[in-house]
Amino acid sequence: MYDATNAPEAKGAWRELYNEKRCTAQEAAAQIQSNQRIALSGGTCIPPAFSRALSDRAGDLKNILLSLGYTMDLYGFMDPANRESFFIETMFVGPVERICMQQGMAQYVPIHLADVPAYAETMDFDCIAHVVSPPDENGYMSRSLFAAFVNKELIKNTDRVVVEVNKNMPRLNSDDFMIHVSEVDHIIEQDGPVFEVPEITITEDEKKIAAYISDLINDGDTIQLGFGGLANAIGHNLMAKKDLGMYAEVVTPSVMELVKAGVINGKKKNVLPGKVVAAFAVGTQEFYDYIDGNEEFIFMDIGTINNPLNIAKNDNLVSINNALMIDLTGQAASESIGTFQYSGTGGQVNFVQGAKMAKNGRSVLALNSTFTNKKGEVKSKIVPLFPDGTVVTTPRTDVEYVVTEYGVANLRYQSIAKRVEALIAIAHPDFRDELREQAKRHKWI
User: Fold this and answer.
1) Catalytic site residues?
2) Does 92 reside within a domain?
């Protein structure tokens, strides 16, 4: 590939390179050979035209491994009929990955997101394909919303780089996410709409949980919110706070509203004051337009953002994540229900550990107290023991605050007996007696 260290952007020669490298998605996909490994990034940055063209080569290609995460569309390479041609390894499990795993077309790679760069180094990828913004006047394109999955070092050491230029893709404020025309081999132009994730409806229970969590956040704190209805609810509950900062894995439209209202201004942050710092962005077109070129935001690679040592540099950090279940000793299951892989480890443990090390840091795990199973039965999410095969995401030694719609349990440095009592107190009232009986049977109280 062309040596980017001597990129001729100042002379405008990049425009000639751009035209030389333009091709169709089919021409780029034609360069892929059997037994190769391809990194397709994740989310909105998985290139749709290239992915469709690659899928059309099913039967021709054999044993292609595709690495991706949090896919937002279905492609032919996911079809079980194409199993001999394609197989997926995913770093994070969303709705599409769950479908692929159930059909035997994908496997989850258990990994902290902070370790994604190290994982990628072991893969020896033959090709990287990614959606980017159009080039600026110097020939630099932004790898945009999900660039954090693929770092610059990986791009530098990969033989073939394919980019899909989309004029609708926002240009994020990030040195880490820039890629020059000289650094790529194939340029596909495809201007489809960017996949939007609308704000998820907030339930009454989530409003109650958000109110409890908001009480744990002080003016001037730096926060990390997750993704989904609860994160939105928390965002709405923080409108009365002052001088909050943000250091997070992902930012969403609720963050935009807090910035617009002046609630998040980063004045009290000790790391990159005045800036919202994140790795990913997911949301609506309005949100994408807002962060496009917005210098109030800084985006960095996931290996940097999710490194617990970097997280810990943020004084007064409050980390907030979701859990699927909590057992009575404080173990948190946030990714599987029994052997069913529902989500992934993601960055939960990274932020729990980082918050624990931060000066005046706090970590919160939130969950509804109950769920309704396929039979229509209401079950408790606070349980004596997890179902067989359930993965413990965050060990009880690291869990601090647990919040349901019934209150807050602080488990840090508490004995088993005190943990049991605290968790029963925030369980659904219909299950408290049963939980207490089970705890006695196990001689925890």
Assistant:
1) 249
2) yes
